[in-house]
Design goal:
NmrA-like; NAD(P)H dehydrogenase (Quinone); NAD(P)-bd_dom_sf; seven-stranded parallel β-sheet; NmrA-type_oxidoreductase; Rossmann fold; alpha/beta; two-stranded parallel sheet; disordered C terminus; 12 helices; UDP-galactose 4-epimerase, domain 1
Length: 294
């Protein structure tokens, strides 16, 4: 039995879909979610729905009952993820799972990326527990720029502080396909996959792609960190979040998300989704009736 945590999130939904597409019977798949009422679409397919709240370890124990493989999708609450992840790992060990896969971050053991410390701590804990594991070190999602694309179609400008730093992003569907491959095939014990897109691009190239695809002239405006923080806090982003986002921009400028080792395309058996394809989808969403970013 395969259990996917965080199954109603952006990535989790795609992982469930990818696992089913690989021919796993729905009744052998568990969508482990904080709010089961939000998983009705999976229930309609025959997928098992189990409550699994990272902050309530008792729900994790029951969610993993009978599991052979578990995918721990990292939590979204920065600053709280280490204890949450440890609770999941402990429950997986108690359940006797054969493989625990974890969505980490690119080069987690050596990077200075601002988001890395919680992933580093989680990886260390997984290793210490003696579980068979597969570390899926995900790079950047192209969809992270959905809001920037939507705003740029109105303002004509994408702002940032990444300079000419490159981003080897891939679509969420690519990372989901990688997770599904690990969950549905054998030989992934004690493996580490550095997952990123096949091609790295700059923010100026992102703006050029939006221009070409949408027909709206869009440029990239590079700001210094203080200017960037001021701009996004002025748009309503809380200052602590803005400072983290500014550090991510600095990390991109320093090349921390630019590596293209090719693990992702090898694992999924095809090239990663080109930047233009995902931007085309983001432009369509931004132009939709609700004008909501992905």
């Amino acid at each position: 039995m395969i259990v996917v945590t965080g199954a109603t999130g952006h990535l989790g939904r795609l992982v469930i879909d990818a696992v089913l597409q690989r021919g796993v019977p729905a009744q052998q798949v568990v969508a482990a979610v904080r709010e089961p009422r939000k998983a009705s679409a999976f229930a309609a397919l025959g997928v098992q729905i189990r409550e699994a709240d990272y902050d309530r370890p008792d729900t994790l124990t029951s969610a993993f009952d009978g599991a052979d493989k578990v995918l721990l999708i990292s939590g979204s609450e920065v600053g709280r993820r280490v204890p949450q992840h440890k609770a999941v790992v402990d429950a997986a060990k108690t359940a006797g799972v054969r493989l625990l896969a974890y969505t980490s971050v690119l080069h987690a053991d050596s990077t200075t990326l601002v988001l890395a410390p919680e992933h580093q701590a989680t990886e260390e804990y997984i290793r210490s527990c003696g579980l068979a594991f597969s570390l899926l070190r995900n790079g950047w999602y192209t969809e992270n720029y959905g809001q920037a694309v939507s705003q740029a179609l109105g303002s004509g400008t994408i702002i940032g502080a990444a300079g000419e730093g490159r981003v080897a992003s891939a679509a969420r569907v690519d990372y989901a396909a990688a997770a599904a491959a690990v969950l549905t095939t054998e030989g992934h014990e004690k493996t580490i996959y550095e997952l990123s897109g096949d091609t790295a691009w700059t923010m100026s190239e992102l703006a050029a792609a939006v221009t070409d695809i949408s027909g709206v002239q869009v440029g990239y405006k590079d700001l210094n960190p203080d200017e960037y923080i001021q701009a996004i806090t002025g748009a309503g982003v809380p200052e602590p979040v803005a400072r983290t986002l500014a550090q991510i921009e600095a990390d991109i400028a320093n090349g921390l998300l630019s590596d293209t080792p090719g693990d992702l395309s090898r694992l999924i058996g095809r090239p990663t989704t080109p930047l233009r394809d995902t931007i085309t989808d983001l432009v369509k969403v931004a132009d939709g009736p609700a004008n909501q970013p992905a």
